[in-house]
Amino acid sequence: MRNLRLDLCYDGTRYRGWQRLSGEENTIQGKLEQTLSRILGEPIEISGSGRTDAGVHARGQVASFHCENPMPCGEILRELRRYLPEDIGIYSCQEAEPRFHARLNAKKKTYCYRIWNSDSPCVFDRRYMTVLVEPLDLDAMKAASKALLGQHDFACFCTRAPKKKSTVREIYDVSITKTGAEVSISATADGFLYNMMRILIGTLVEVGLGRRRADSIPDLFTQKRAEAGVLMPAKGLCLMEVVY
């Protein structure tokens, strides 16, 4: 049995997210499994490094799957590029170690959230940015973000806590930059809970709008979901990199 790794990207605009859903064909995982099964002539189940939400994008997603077919990786890559829709791109297909698993072996993940912070039109990047007209105080947001670093219980920052699993995660880095009207917020962690990144961004945005104090973040680690920020729209979020 072969174990193969795919490195890929996708525009999540028209998809219901990564995870295959019963009775729903329009997911990234579903499209990949359907296409691979057709190419290889056997049922294929793939595992992704993370289950991005509906509308979330990826520039650096990783997936793995097992198969019996001896088709060379280069040929599998060509066939995937031939049959997949144009909003799903495959960078590479390669043999992996027998025990490699895209999700279980991931050590770090980096997500980036993009905000168009202006009342000027955002026509060409409207699928990939959230528009926010009110000016953001980036200094306040940067000050607040420092409290997110390190290991904490992020239960307050997720909409669906995993059953019987820890909600403790470690954030290694948070970066907030502005180029023209675009504000980019990147975070690297050992893992992210369901909707965690979008709620973290919502909390920082509330700080940037003056609706929440920058020094209030530490108190949230012992609070309920309702005390944290809003859930930001999915379209501004992108999975940038997975480290193994």
Structure explained in plain terms:
The chain has 4 helices and 10 strands; from the N terminus they run E-H-E-E-H-E-E-E-H-E-E-E-H-E. The protein is an alpha+beta fold and 244 residues long. Strands 1, 2, 3, 4, 5, 6, 7, 8, 9 and 10 form a 10-stranded mixed beta sheet that branches. The chain has helices spanning 28-40, 73-83, 138-145, 196-208, and strands spanning 2-10, 46-48, 57-67, 88-95, 108-116, 130-131, 150-153, 168-179, 182-189, 237-243. A hairpin with an 8-residue loop joins strand 2 (46-48) and strand 3 (57-67).
List keywords for this structure.
single chain, about 240 residues, alpha+beta, ten-stranded mixed beta sheet, 10 strands, globular
Contiguous runs where pLDDT drops below 50 for at least 5 residues = none
Q: What is the CA-CA span between the terminal residues? A: 22 Å
Radius of gyration: 19 Å
Q: In total, how many beta strands?
A: 10
Mean pLDDT comes to 96
Helix segment count?
A: 4
Computed structural class: alpha+beta
Largest sheet: 10 strands, mixed
Q: What is the ordering of alpha helices and beta strands? A: EHEEHEEEHEEEHE
- Described by the principal axes of the CA atoms, the overall outline is globular
What proportion of the residues form beta strands (DSSP E)?
25-35%
The percentage helix is 10-25%
- What is the oligomer described by this structure? single chain
Give a concise summary.
By secondary structure, the chain is an alpha+beta fold.
Task: Summarize the topology.
Elements: E1 2-10, H1 28-40, E2 46-48, E3 57-67, H2 73-83, E4 88-95, E5 108-116, E6 130-131, H3 138-145, E7 150-153, E8 168-179, E9 182-189, H4 196-208, E10 237-243
